[in-house]
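B., you asked whether I could sanity-check this one before it goes into the benchmark set. Here's the sequence:
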Amino acid sequence: MFRTTGRALLVTFLSGSVFLATAGTAGAKGTSVKVEIDDDGCPAKLTVKAGPTNFKVTNSGSGDVSEFEILSGSRVVAEVENIAPGLRKELSVNLKPGTYKTLCPGGSKHSKAKLVVTSRR
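And here's what the prediction gave me:
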């Protein structure tokens, strides 16, 4: 799990997206958010507070969808891949306020969805 996340975040860093989010290791302190992906894709909308966030991503589908990505425009901020049906993986990221997209490739209804990050106030 850490190797996949680390590579994805290194690519994100090299592409210049580091100003949007900085990654931590799974289990970082902060908000914990349960995310269920399935054959429909991502949850239609997620709202979280800015700061360290630990997404606990569970796959309850048949396997058509196996990854969860957070995007700003067309840039991948963070992602977790290879989530087999019935399994859970964690993705920790420090998000700044704003509107992002989530991407669950292969989803039949919500392959792209909305992630709103609100101020901590």
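One thing to flag: The chain has one helix and nine strands. Otherwise nothing jumped out at me.
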